[in-house]
């Protein structure tokens, strides 16, 4: 991508004002983004993005610049711009590079750029046909196909020189059901660290029908009652509530600044002993997995909470300096336009011993959240607000009628403490996570679990 001698010169230039560490991140990305709507391709965006980011540290301070000019003059100029923001006394010239290719944890069989668009469109049409024929109330289907090949080089003044290839593939299916009075949308968006083989092996019948079924179910649902209820949250993407309300609070990005509800609580009981919370970037081919992070460090299985005890945080290099903690392979960024910071990969609650049937049967009265939607959270306090895409009432230990318009309102650390049953059916769901270093692929996951009480927003009436 760039030769070692040039990269070494760029790092040397970045250190000329007394910085004690410099890093170069080179990216060359190919991307396809197709949208099928009304049975035909409505949008087709293909592109290549090449750029270089340069970062310099001086103690706990850092400066970051980037450029799309990869000439020698352009790179040295960008390095000087970063250096000018640093005023230090370090005498660092940079260690000799130790070249390494990132280990291939995730097997890729068909690179996206080698596949004709006609094959991709055929898969999209098949998904649209399945969803469209699910029920006569389905009025529209949108299918989005995204694939990306990102080639990176990460080099720094400590001698690291790592090259990596990342491949992501994802399909999003949105089905709209409508009648004379209402319109509802169902959504499913599976993804993986795989090539085109992901789409060829995808169970379109399952995902397309589920998207349509959610829409049809919500079309005939009553408004959700409001109040405080026990809430059963199903597996897979149900984990988004803990990703947002707890996971972000365990990232060093907020912990190092003391702006996290979990700061300075390592060793404390922060959840019941049935809760173990893990971030693992090494799971083969999962959507949030990585070969190396965006600082060139190997990913690892980070047990954040074990049997209710807070064990540690997700740490990047800069915040690791502040916290006097080693990085955990958690430095991530969307692209060369962003400096990396601590981010999640595949984050999930480990399976427990209860079956989903037992959890439902032991709930006399409450809400069953089958599919979660989007939401917002304040990492400093853990306060959150989430939509439920598909919800049901629970009465006398059984799933009752569907309800719509449900939201969950609460506080992440408090919700974590009120988990009282954890199922044995761990599942993962693909999503995109936005934060200081941009939008990145992450998996959220959990088994079916029950929270003893959450405030549910909806219409005020008895459930």
From TrEMBL:
Record-annotated membrane-spanning stretches: none
InterPro entries: Metalloprtase-TldD/E_C (IPR045569), Metalloprtase-TldD/E_cen_dom (IPR045570), Metalloprtase-TldD/E_N (IPR002510), Peptidase_U62_metallo (IPR051463), TldD (IPR025502), TldD/PmbA_N (IPR035068), TldD/PmbA_sf (IPR036059)
Residue span(s) of domain Metalloprotease TldD/E central: 112-219
Cellular component terms (Gene Ontology): cytosol
GO molecular function, one term: metallopeptidase activity
Domain Metalloprotease TldD/E C-terminal residues, every copy: 226-458
Keywords from the named record: Hydrolase, Metalloprotease, Protease
Example of a GO biological process term: proteolysis
Signal peptide span: none
Residue stretches making up the Metalloprotease TldD/E N-terminal domain: 22-85
Family recorded in the similarity comment: Belongs to the peptidase U62 family.
PANTHER family: METALLOPROTEASE TLDD, UNCHARACTERIZED PROTEIN TLDD AND PMBA
Protein name (Swiss-Prot/TrEMBL): Regulatory protease
Species, as recorded: Alkalibacillus haloalkaliphilus
Classification lineage: Bacteria, Bacillati, Bacillota, Bacilli, Bacillales
